[in-house]
Amino acid sequence: SNGHPLAGRRVLMTVGSTREAIDPVRFIGNRSSGKMGYALAEALRACGAQVMLIAGPTSVPAPVEMMRVDVESALQMRVAVMVQVYTCDLFIATAAVADYRPEAPVDGKIKKTEATMTLTLVRNPDILAEVAALPKPPFTVGFAAETDDLEHYARDKLEAKQLSMIAANRVGDGPGGFESDKNALICLWPGGGRRELPMMSKPALATALADLIAERYAAQSAG
Ligand code: PMT
């Protein structure tokens, strides 16, 4: 057929961090700046896709004139995703979602009366796994952020969550990952598919990843 495989496709993406409230003034958060997710959103739009963002807090501004729902916590992000997911063709989870949240946020500001304090955390729902397990899931792309054994853990996540693709990046020490202007990815898909996208600027990397997503989406659609 004519045209780009992603032209007119609806892409739902999660972007940024989540904030899990401890009390009215404090939260558990993470270092996701939104640079990788927003760069990918721009690259997908350049392919002709219609992009909808579900965005947690970020330190960089969102692309202008792109549909966006702002959320704070993982639970809010999950609800916003589930509202939109039934009408999307692709779902891409770039957000760094907190795996745990404080069991019960305290109503008033916690006072510093004790020498130590204990915070009890409970598991958050896994948004990516829930989307991938839908009866008719969209083409679902996960990210994997790992400090070690990158490819091994990424392959496990691809298989355990039955994803269409996973994009794995090294975080912690080194040039890429959270907050950096650069990144590198190892992309994996079912049947032993693998492509390495070397260290480059996040916008350039996003363009290469969007091309790979388009290629795999077209291959899957062709059956
Ligand atoms: O925002 P930047 O500063 O540019 O940094 C980019 C990035 C490092 C945040 C990004 O490239 C990245 O790796 N995003 C995923 C971070 C992450 O939380 O990875 P994870 O391995 O913990 O989670 C695996 C996948 O499950 C991710 O697609 C995540 O969005 C998803 N997930 C995780 C937990 C949860 N409760 N729900 C989810 O949907």
Question: How would you describe this protein?
Answer:
With 223 residues, the chain is of the alpha/beta class. It has a single domain (10-99, 120-221), classed as Rossmann fold (3-Layer(aba) Sandwich), CATH 3.40.50.10300. Helices cover 27% and strands 29% of the residues. The chain has five helices and twelve strands. It has helices spanning 35-46, 74-84, 127-132, 150-160, 202-221; strands spanning 10-15, 20-23, 26-28, 50-55, 67-70, 90-93, 100-102, 121-123, 139-146, 165-170, 182-189, 193-201. An eight-stranded mixed sheet has the order 5-4-1-6-9-10-11-12, sandwiched between helices. It is globular, with a radius of gyration of 18 Å. The two termini are 15 Å apart. The structure holds ligand PMT. Ligand PMT binds next to helix 1, helix 3 and strand 9.
Please bin the fraction of helical residues.
Answer: 25-40%
Biggest sheet character: 8 strands, mixed
Described by the principal axes of the CA atoms, the overall outline is globular
Look at the helices and sheets and give the structural class.
Answer: alpha/beta
Topology, element by element:
Blueprint: E1 10-15, E2 20-23, E3 26-28, H1 35-46, E4 50-55, E5 67-70, H2 74-84, E6 90-93, E7 100-102, E8 121-123, H3 127-132, E9 139-146, H4 150-160, E10 165-170, E11 182-189, E12 193-201, H5 202-221
Parallel strand pairs: 1-4, 1-6, 4-5, 6-9, 9-10
Antiparallel strand pairs: 2-3, 7-8, 10-11, 11-12
Helix pairs in contact: 1-5
Ligand PMT is lined by residues 14, 32-37, 74, 93-97, 99, 124, 126-128, 142-145, 157, 169, 171, 177-179.
